[in-house]
Amino acid sequence: MAFNHLPAGVHDALVPLSVTPVTDSVPMAKNHRPDRSPAEPGSRPEPGMLLDRLAAGPSRAARITHTEHLPPRAGRHAVWPDRIRPEVLAAVRAAGIEHPWAHQARVAEHALDGDSVVVATGTASGKSLAYLVPVLSALVDGSEEPNGRGATTLYLAPTKALAADQCRSVKELSQPLGTSVRAAVYDGDTPFEEREWIRQYGTYVLTNPDMLHRGILPSHPRWSSFLKALKYVVIDECHTYRGVFGSHVAQVLRRLRRLCARYGASPVFLLASATAAEPSVAARRLTGLPVIEVADDASPRGELVFALWEPPLTELEGEKGAPVRRTATAEAADLLTDLTVQGMRSITFVRSRRGAELISVIAQERLAEVDRSLAGRVAAYRGGYLPEERRALERALHSGDLLGLAATNALELGLDISGLDAVVIAGYPGTRASLWQQAGRAGRAGQGALAVLVARDDPLDTFLVHHPEALFDQPVESTVLDPDNPYVLAPHLCAAAAELPLTEEDLKLFGPACEELLPQLEAAKLLRRRTRAWHWTRRERAADLTDIRGEGGRPVQVVEEGTGRLLGTVDAGAAHTAVHEGAVHLHQGRTYLVRSLDLEDSVALVEQATPAYSTVARDTTAISVLETDIEVPWGDGRLCYGSVEVTNQVVSFLRRRLITGEVLGETKLDLPPRTLRTRAVWWTVTEDQLDAARINPEILGGALHAAEHASIGMLPLFATCDRWDIGGVSVPLHPDTLLPTVFVYDGHPGGAGFAERAFHTARDWLTATREAIASCECDAGCPSCIQSPKCGNGNDPLHKRGAVRLLTVLLRGAAESGPAQQAG
Fold it and tell me: Which of 72, 136, 372, 809 has the lowest tally of Cβ within 10 angstroms?
């Protein structure tokens, strides 16, 4: 029997995933009745004092496992390059900025020299101004040219919210420059009547990679005057372009460069990120160009107090009688409530849309008990809201009308929300890069700030709150992306050929994998070679072949059965687990039951209901080895990396009581299987190693299964992935290896680079995995070590002590193999 652990959002193939229900109605821990008297107006405690207030009382004080103090830092000034237009410098001074920080001046110098550059300095370090000053100077220069359009700039942001926020900033800064700077947002929310004006007259166009891929590049003749004059391309928050999404964006940028060259332009790329490891290397892989790095942060910084917070154990029992901690969602709602009562401005980040809604509802209810007027000063912010709703929330938080937001990572990136006092992070966000991005939302006006990471009942979260050095003494992760992934490259070659016939000269731009792919695309009758170029052969749009977010397929529309009202959409990949018949679906604080799922028409019909349970999908998974690329000995065992095929089928769902997680029943489902060809890392052990680990046949499956769960939970510490990006299977006797084997695979066709990163960091990764299991205080396994929230086998069987012994013997073999035999 194979034990499986599946990733989310599998593109065009399989997609798992059941999400563990959020049991936010778990009662508050005993003795936890914080003082919630409204604060005196205008009081603003220091970060350390604010943390003391939140931790008041013996029950709460014990929840803080570590406090890190990042001291304030003085800034270092420089002077702007003398080539910057005086009007631009005057506008910057009018905004209250007399002198740039040293890193801002360096970025501007490189941009003026025509060098592509990445600025990788901390949050609130003025990265936007670093690239805006040379950009605005070029736009002013261009406005004096006879045609009146002159130079243009394209700004790319990963989210609509960030693009809209940056547009406001550009307009404010450039107001003294008059019509020489015409900034406008061009995305899916832009009214059609405005789009033609932007194409013809916009000089600073802000958009996202999705619109560039689907809207601008396929319609390049209509953008010809803009592209011909394109001088700068700004790529903000460039660290977010990782995995499959990053690989797609890398190819979109190559298509952009190709079209610009045809129009006679060679734009300079200006990239920015507050959290990037090896920024120049990552920027080069993303753009395909040499990029200079500016990473010496010369800006001042206020004090940051960063607390690690572990919710207490409750008296409840979960799956297999495991102890249950109070949820991070419930704990974060308490902290948001207390911060609001004290008049502190804060954001609580939560990983899911549902979690954001729940935290805001819980906080509003508790605030109403203290002061009814405070309930309206807290709200939720997540994707799926209407554009005008999102903008209104952003303005309200910016102005201070809202004191607190419960938000998904849509507010993680770069929005200039100055003056926040605190950030609460409900659950480790998956990478250190995201953690520091979220923590950096507070204190952006230079004042001190408080950040609190509230651990979920999860192996990685538990490990981190007890091993603070893994967060505070380590650099952020390297950005992982693979532009040569054939599943990524093939549709972009088609899109490029549809934009302009693809020549042999163009192939150098798209990489060496083109030579192997082009004959396959010809055989599939997607491309046809005529003389020296490949042409797109179909009537449909080539850009529609792929979804660059890696979600794949047509989204499933969630429709209210009685009214026909469209409530929202669910990614095609998640439909089998999220909106199967009988599933509980949450939307804007309301609960719905799914009555039917039509996969052919991509429609889920729902009706409003108030069930006292949540639902979790169960699935089965099989995996086969297609090709082993690399294999190294670990003692008698083997560590391998290569290509695999994964077959998954959702077969049933469980109904669980909301408060306790008690299973109320299981219902069978009849859904088709899905297959996925991807990349995986796997390890095997021999009979002799099992004997050395005292693993008998009765506990072998549980030991492998437990090690698989924990290793998936720990991988985000070593690669820029989330546990939902990856999956796993453990098999006591695998037919391809003929040995007990544990697989961890990328949840995206062709791979996303995560399994490869796991292979090259395997010793450190599995050592941390063993430590996380061994140090957990539970007896037989719990969600903090070996239980998984998305296990297709109901976390059965699992053997905690067997997993520790098994990993000990495996790692002993790795050490005996010596450095020359290690995977990287």
Answer: 372
